[in-house]
Structures are given as structure tokens and as C-alpha cells.
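pasting for ref
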Amino acid sequence: MRRKPNPKTRRRRFWRSLAITVFLLALFAAGTIAGIVMAYSRNLPDISRMADYQPARSTRIFARDGSLLGSVYKENRVWVPIGKIPPIVRDAFIASEDKNFYYHHGVDFFGIARAALADLTHRRQQGASTITQQLARKLFLNDSYSISRKIQEALLAMEIERYYTKDEILERYLNLVYLGSGAYGVDAAAHTYFGRSVATLTAGQAAMIAGVVAAPSEYSPYVNMKFAKSRQTRALDLMAESHFITQAQADDAIAAPIVLAGERAEGLQGYSSPYFTTYVIAQLEKLFGKQAVQEGGLQVYTTVDPKLEAAAQEAVDWGVNAALAEGIGAHEAALVSIRPSTGEIVAMIGGTKFSLANQFNRAWQARRQPGSSFKAYVYTAAIDNGMAASTIVDDSPVSYPMGDGTQWSPQNDDFRYMGAVTLRQALALSRNVVAVKIAQQLGIDRVIDYAQRMGVTSPLEANLSLALGTSDVTVLDQASGYSTIANQGIHIEPSAFRVVEDALGNTVLDDRYPQQNEVVSAGTAFIVTTMLEDVIAYGTGTNANIGRPAAGKTGTTSDFKDAWFVGFTPDLVTAVWAGNDEGRMSESYGGNIPARIWARYMRAALAKVPKHDFVMPADEVRKMASCSGRGMEYYLIAGAPTSPCGSAFGTPVPASYYVAPVYSAPPLPTLAPTPTPLPAIATPPPDSVGDGTHFVPLDSPAPSAAPPAPEGTKAPKRPR
């Protein structure tokens, strides 16, 4: 008979079998897990790439006063080192997303258990992914949910923790995480939601940003303030639970009002000073390439003065409205303003109200005929090559052979001729025939050379009509060219930049100390300036009188498509164009709407600048009494008369003085093609007229003018 097993023996066998079974199951599970880990480990991305990872960063563009003009980005992100992210911001994210961040090794197993228990008991939702796991997902994986992705995420997180410090991990996370409303990273979010740097965020603001992480498209305060406030409250309570702040501080932050910066339109419509900002972006892409601008995180410090930009836009809008009200029919205008001593563009307006339908920048993208405003280059070349402002030229009919066998006869705007006039008078009154004769005497290639060295970058056609402004230029060209005169003959290339830095803070462009090129002498520039002052004093630009020393020139094309005024004070150069993109205006001259826009802007721009005169270079220019006793004349010392017209203003002048030698300019370099020279132009005593051999004072009766065009004859208008 078999003996029954002892109950104790049976129990021992049971527990032994159970232990063996559990051991085998555990061994199997461990082997399975090890196999899975090994399988997934073989296919894990190389985390060493994390050290070299360069995310797309925003290029930010700032005005001269430090205000943000706009950002260019593929992803709106500004990278901030961990040391510049304040503890309150770091604590808000750690409390909300990973309270054990500093204690786990990539995966928080207690957090996983806590989240599972919370789900089972329907308590407040808990996150299971650590900050390191979220970073691994962002850098190496995707947002799809699957068991395999979660395994890879956990493995990557543990691997990352082996090679990187907690601060390195947190820095990358806080700069890469998407925080809604187009903002990537905490600094971009701080600017997007609160209009401030991350370094200045309060506890309440930091908590609201941290609360967005779970569902950026739903929890953004711009999308749903109720949800955003709820998430902020949760984050502040968690910060108090983690002892980052006290409960009293959390309650105060919850009670504090939320003041948002206001959602800014994306792209072009979100830019401040949009005409200037889009010009800056175009120049950046030309210098550094489109990818560097959109992803490189450049910090661009520009020259624009927001107050002057606003004054310029106001003046342009006012001028266009005035043109429409007065029946002139100019629907657009453009303005560029430059500091001549530095070349800094302080204002640029490319049209009336900027919009997606009206973003064409007429200040630099459009080329227009400058009309008589181009004459400044002709007269600068003349003075610089030995002619005097008192040189007499005959304002009389002249014809030039054309290549097709016809004749071209330049005419004045009023179809009249004044006879013998000085260069000073001819420029002030914008006599076209005189400008053409001077250009023919100098050689048109010489005029082009001066215009280009003074700052005109547009291509210029080598024909005599260029003296009347028939080749297209930009508003920026004209502002640049006149800046050379205003800056005592020294040209500085116009620039929209002060400093450009890369994402690491290295200076990649510094225009604070620009290159200076002497184009003409200070004496030449000063004499031309005094001639352009007369344009405003009694010539075609009287509407540009602003009650302080100023010089400038009008310009109008013969078909009334373009009207200009370009002028300057010792401190500021401004070019103004008015007209239409298509079609002509009603009869309107540069001395009307453009001069009035110029004056309105310059009064506002210089309101706080003391009045002062243009500086005469005494070592290059001689000031002498006018022969007529009605003022003073200025000469380059090398070409000044040997005897003054009088010992003092108003002293009678001997009759013998009015017989002047024939003008003989110093030899000019050979330029091709060499123009056919006109008869030599005589240089008379100041304020006298004559036929080139005999001269009489201007006090004498003026020569009879040619009769006007017969009544009913319609000839085309000419530049003025």
C-alpha cells in the first residue's frame, strides 16, 4: 500500500515548481526583452548627431532703436543658452512635464506607474514621457503612436542620458519644443505671447507657456484663453507641489491678469516698416543666401529710424491724397532718406499703404526717368572740370545730328530762350538747352562717369538727352548720388545695415565704419550746393523751402509720368518720386507734389535738429562780391578771377572788368566716343552777360527773348 505524501512535502514541491516556473518565465521574459532591446538597438539612430544638430532658427531684424521689425524663418526659433533661461522657466517645464527629471536616467518607471494608476482611477492626467524621451522623439523619431516607437524612444532616452548632461538635454528641449502660434522654443514663445524676452518672464507667464506643450494647437492663449488659463493654473500648482514656488506665489500668479502682446500677422503683413524690411531681406539673401536667412538665425541690426519712417510714410500718403484732391492724378509716391555722413538709410517708403496687393517697392525696385533732377551730375562735372558758376552759356536753339540722319533739337519747358545766362541761373531755372550744351562740351561719357561714381548704379545710355534725365534710375540711386554732394564730395555707399551677427553672436557684417571714396573736391561739392540752394530760393523748387539751409533739384519728364524732388540739408538727403505705375499724371512738375512731400517730411525729420549752414571749405573756395552788387559768388581757388569785382559788397565795378577772357578748361582725359566740341564757352565776370566776347552787367536790359511758339502749336513738354 502506497504511503500518502506528506502535506508539507506537497507544499514544498508546489512552491519549488512555482519558483522554477516563475524563474523560467522571468528568464524567458528577460531573454525576450533582451532580444527586443538588442533588435531595436541595432536600428537606433546615432545619437552622436545630436551634438552637431543645427535646428532652423529665425533671422530677426531690428530697427535702430532696438525694436523688432520682423522675423524671417522656416521655424520661428531663437536659440537661447541654458544659462540665459531663468530658473522660473526651467522649473515651470520640469514641474509640468517631468518632475523627476534630475533623478531618472532617461525613463521614469515610477512616473509610468503613476500615470497608469491615474488613468485607472480617473485622477488628473499624468504624463508618462520624460523630457529626455520627448527630446529623443523630436530629434530622431516621429509623433506616431506605436509600441515599437515607444520602445525606441525609451532606449534613445537612456542612451542620451549616458552621453549628455541634464543641462545640455534641457537646453535642447527648451529651444526645440513647439509652443503654439508658430513659436518654437521658449524665447520665440515669450516674444509671440508676451512681447518680451524669455529672460524677463514672470512665473505666471512661464507657467502659461509650459502649459501649452501638451496640445499647442488647442492650449495657445490666442486659440482658447479658457484652456490656456486652466493649463497655467495646473502648471503653477505643480510648481508649488514640487517646492519650486510657494502656494501663495502660485495663487498670486493665478490671480494676476494675463496681458498678451497681440497676435501678429505672419510673413509680410507682420512686418513693421514693411517697405524697408522687405528691402533688408532682399539684401540679406543677396549677401548670405536664402537658406541662411530663413534658417540661420541671423541677428540683423539696421539703420532705419522708426520715427523718421513713420514721418516719411505720413508725408507720402499726404502727398498722394493731395495730388488726387487737386486733380493731378498721382496715385503713388516713393521716398528714400539717407544720412550723408554715414550712408545710413534712415527711411524708405516704396508706396502708399503696404499690403499683399501693394508690396512693390518703388524706392528701389522701380526705375524711372529722373528728368531734370539728373542735371546735378552734369553741373557737378562742369564745376569739377574748371567751369565757374558764373560761366555764361547761350540759352539759344541748337540741333544735333542723329544716327538716322535726322536732327534732335532740345527745347526748354516754356519753349522760350533766355539768351546768355550763367550756369547758376540755368540750373536754378532748369534750362534744358544749357544742360545739353554743357554735356556736349564735357562729353556724355564723362557725365556718365561722374553720375556713376557719385552713386547712380542703374545703367545709363550714352546720348545727349541723358543730360535731361532720359535714362531710368531708382529713387535710391538719386538719394545716393545727391549724398555725395551733401557729404562734401565723398561718396559712401548707402546701407541698411549697422551690424549683422550669426546665430553664435559672431559679427559677419559691420557697416558702422563704411568705406569713403572722394569723387569730387569739397570745393566743387560746395559750389554745386550753393547753386542747388538757388533752385529752392528762386528757381523751380520754391515749394521745398523749409526755413533752413537746404539745396535740391526738381525733375519732371516730358510725358508727365514721373515727377521728382531730390534735396538735402547738411544732415539729411531725401529723394522723392511721384507718379503712377501705369499711365501719366495730369500736368504736374517736380516742384509741386514731390517738393511738397519732401518739405513736409524734412520739417518733421529735422524738427529737433538745430539749423546750420553748409560748411564752405575756405582752403578750396574763394568767396567774392558779385559784379552786379546783388550777392556773392563762389569760385574754386585755382580758377578764381585775379581781381575781385569790388572791394566790398555794392562797390561799383570798372567797365573794363566786363571784358573777360574766353573760357579755357583744363585738359580732359580722352573718353570714347569723343563728342564734337561746341565753340568755346567764355567765362565772364560774375553776374554779367554777353555773346562770348563782349559782356555787360546783368543790370543792363536783357536780350530780347525768342518769340513763343505760335498759338495752337502743340509741342511735347520737356523735362524740368
